[in-house]
Amino acid sequence: MRFSQKCLVATGHDLDMNTAVSTVNFDHDGVHYQREYFVSYPDEVAVVRLSASQPGKLSFTTSTAAASGLTTTAVADANEKRITLAGQVADNQMRAEMQLKLENQGGTVSSSDGRTLTVSGADSVTLVYTTGTNYKNEYPTYRGEDPHAKLTQRVDSAIASGYGALLDRHLTDYQELFSRVQFDVGAAVPDIPTDELMRNYRTGSHDLAVDQMAYQFGRYLSIAGSRIGDLPTNLCGLWMIGSASVFWGADYHFNVNDGAPSDSLYVLGAYATPVIGVGNIQPMARYQWAKIKGVDGTQPWNIDAGISYLVKGPALRLLATYSHSAYPGDITANSTTGARLSTCCRKSWKSPVTKPRSSSTAGSCAAVM
Length: 369
Description:
Elements: E1 2-3, E2 9-16, E3 21-28, E4 31-40, E5 45-52, E6 58-62, E7 70-77, E8 82-89, E9 95-105, E10 108-110, E11 117-122, E12 124-133, H1 148-161, H2 163-178, H3 194-202, H4 208-225, H5 256-259, H6 263-267, H7 278-293, H8 300-305, H9 313-326, H10 335-348, H11 359-367
Antiparallel strand pairs: 1-6, 2-3, 3-4, 4-5, 5-12, 6-11, 7-8, 8-9, 9-12, 10-11
Helix pairs in contact: 9-10
């Protein structure tokens, strides 16, 4: 979004982890502006709310852009107040689309170039946007229906609901999870910006508020990125910061990197399941294992071991399966997966093409059997 106001004086940027709503406040020419942001799991949209303390003071142009590796075209419709950014992933031709729709109170909406929307003289504006692909986790094509119709219905429904209803549903959904745990080590909320608080902590001023905040921030991220029935949060890191051309590929490495983001939460019975559809990826694993290793891909231990380029992958997944059975007490839910992975561990490690790389690796397999 490009705003007409210049020389803004920010009065606050914050993320409230109790509500998962981020806000920005600033002043310009005697007018107070506020921006609110949240992502709604029940409505499957990201929501932005812009408001001003005086009527007719909001004017901006909004546009869309894709990350590196996608070939897309943006089309704006001022009458529908919608931008559609659609195209495909360059290397595998998977269809990808994002739709943005807005609703303005006061003012006008126009498009001078057919790609962007310009809001002029509004009192407040709500924007919602969502994304989708035609990916489907089914071998051999891994392709489903075009996402366009589903995304259109999603943003239309969200705008029709209104900002208040969207926020209420978001809070009900998020707070049911976040409020499960209270973590208090006796720290007072500091009256300084978070970046300053973190600098002080790193230089020796160990405010317990940082420990409380870091713990709850991890829970906030996990709730935001991973739910039961969905894939777990994939591995991320500091390399995510910067140019879109170096973004992480959103893939899963079937080794310790797979389990690191989610296993501890899984043990507590919360959020997504870290056993990433072993049955769904078996056919592709069988094919890759036979192709790369030149072995009989019909053997059950080779089917499962082929999921990983590291032979310890199945053992680590077996550990996660055992943990879920032992701690939440769900003994039967993973019996089939556990038996298959156990067979994989016992037999693949005896195969001459899947010898353990070290004694420590062998020990990790023995430990979970």
